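Possible race condition, two jobs.
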Amino acid sequence: MLSAFAVLLCVTALLAYLNDRFLHFPTTVGVTLAGALASILLIVLDALGLPGLRGWAAGVLETLDFTEFVLNGILSVLLFAGALSLNARQMLRQRRSILLLAFLSTLISTALIGFAAYGVFALVGLDVPLMWALLFGALISPTDPVAVLDLLKRARVPVKIETLIAGESLFNDGVGVVIFLALAGAAGLGGHGAEVSAAGVAGLFAQEALGGLAFGALLGGLGFVLLRGVKEHTVEILLTLALVVGGYVAAAALGISGPLAMVVAGLVIAAYKHTLFTPATQELVEGFWETIDQVLNIVLFAFIGLDVLLTETTGAQILASVLLIGVALAARWISVAVPFALVRAREGYGAYTVRLLTWGGLRGGIAISLALGLPDSPYRTHLVTVTYAIVLFTIAVQGLTIMPLVRRAVDATPEET
């Protein structure tokens, strides 16, 4: 495991170096594309009669296990760091729109993509049951907070819109995982044995979501009490790190949403960081979490690109992927526009907000880790291939074009947006 991680870290550093020197793309985008191109090159070399290298690289990636690496590894750190970097008080002022988008938009998108995917798979000749199609809708609907936050830091997005986009992506990540687990339970694929009834699914959703929110608030309160009496920055860093890692493990043991707990805990600490930390220690603590966030962020997206090595594709899967990229975009727009109509006039959002939320809805490691975590079946490879296609499209195409869209939107209507 250590050797495999060392290889991944060295390859990631090389890809980041090449991007910084020659490509000059946003780091997450450049590293993902470079990793994907490297994977394709290894596949081509293997096909040309140079065996061994592709198998060795695939073995390294399989040793690390993407699902474990993300869901039970770095996700807690990334979500806490992302929440800690935000203006928690501004998020509290926009809580209605953020929570409405995070919950209602994710539910709408899951249904739209799930039923559409069922039809698309049938159209191209792939036999995928409706429940598996809905699972695909659940895993692909949440926007990835890691990818979104990285791009928002580079864009001239007004604070109100930045908070809305970042807040939604942080919360809908946890909501998407909860929906996925509830659907998996209904299909008898989770850790709940046989299929769960409709009431059981609703109860599981409430337990995961509400329990995660409450536990996160408890963790944040505990962190506040402990940090209030400490002035040494190394102890403060150690306490926050223990809060994240220990809290995430405890959430998993309690059967509640660890991702939602980490977001809430991070926001509680962020809301009181000016009280808890002196200016000098705050700079050191925030610097530590920002550095950890950026390094793990780059490693994660290099992993996404390199994992193309493990994806076997067929013509029907490629056709389904092309069609479902359009479906995912359309579903994202509808799922944002419908609930947003309820809050836009009241909270004064501009005309370009829905457009930015739609095109800025990048997918990333969470979607891939959920897809790869599906049990072996005849349908799993279909879902994994399409998930990779959508993730790579959002990172490569949407990630590279969101910045010009933001600039045009802000320049066109600065007083609204």
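Job #2 (started ~2 s after job #1):
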Amino acid sequence: MLNAMSSLPFWEGHIVRSVEDLEDGALLIILDTCPASEPQCGACRRPCSLVHERRRRKVRDRDCLDRRVWLDLPIRRLDCHHCNARVTEHISWLDRRARITHRVRVWVEALAQLLPIAHVARLTGLHWHTIKDIDHQRLQRLHGDFSANDVRRLVMDEFALHKGHRYATVALDAERMKVLWVGEGNSREAIRPFFEKLGPEGCQRVEAVAMDMNSAMDLEVRAQCPNAEVVYDLFHVVTRFGREVVDRVRVDQANTLRAEPKARQVIKRSRWLLLRNRDNLKSEQAIKLEELLAANKPLSTVYLLKTELKEIWYAPTVREGARRWKSWLRLALDSQIAPLIQFAKRLAKYRRGILASAIYPMSSSTLEGVNNRIKVIKRMAYGFRDSAYFFLKIKDAFPGKVR
């Protein structure tokens, strides 16, 4: 086995002296410098024969079949006469001061893209922090630099970073599906660094920004991007309608039926029937929904107006969108349902951004997809310990597509 391994080109500039079995079942391969190979300076990468000192280092290499592999190799400190520096020699397969070879680093980088860090650590036998540092360096190389060339349409959204109402904001190129920037916070001051990175010319190019009804984000976009049209996202508006109108009316209707426990329970348990899209219901669920709406006029009204509200975003022109908006607003104000009337009056302030969807039909599924993917990343992480790494993972999940 030793003779066979001595001839393998795994460790350039070194030869195998011996192989030992360790108590834990791992292999320890002891290397010596190859007599025919002259060391290279770690600074100028030129050959240097002046050796100042020699030390040995134990490093981890890629597993061989089912065995962990450790290397014991000499590390020479050179006195380079070319650059007048006293530095450690350059080894092509091992970084300076590293305790793992390039093969291990590439292996870990591949695994970290598929598995949680804790699982990679158990699989490789490396420490959690070692895995995280390797993956962090990979992400920094790929996504550390800010790049937003020719961006014209943006999607901006906030997501929960931690418990306790701590949020972060993500900016996405809507055309390339590429995350451009992620920052902690959702205030105007928190998102301003993104526009500073975008620069005056970049801000001038932006023609539309899709977002939820976040007043801070709205004001900052209008201040930084004078040519941009704010487009309010359908998904967020419908979600808010469900929370502020459908849920409120459902609870109110259930409270009016305290004398009829069975009927009250039917309404109390109907939340998901009312909030889900009709197309996503099974046949038996659709039948229950029809029976519920037929038996309760207020719930039927808000459910139908929720459906009509979506149609405003699908208008082919601004004029048609305005017509649909006026019709919807009139029905809402005439409904005599207090939560619906309050919601309609608040929504009227955002009419321009709603009708802008006819000019810039930016799909609400984009933001929904981003939020869902972020939740998956958080679950895989079992809690990231620093925000910078988490933000790089988000950027890695949305690298963008070629136009």
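The mean pLDDT is 90.
Logs attached separately.
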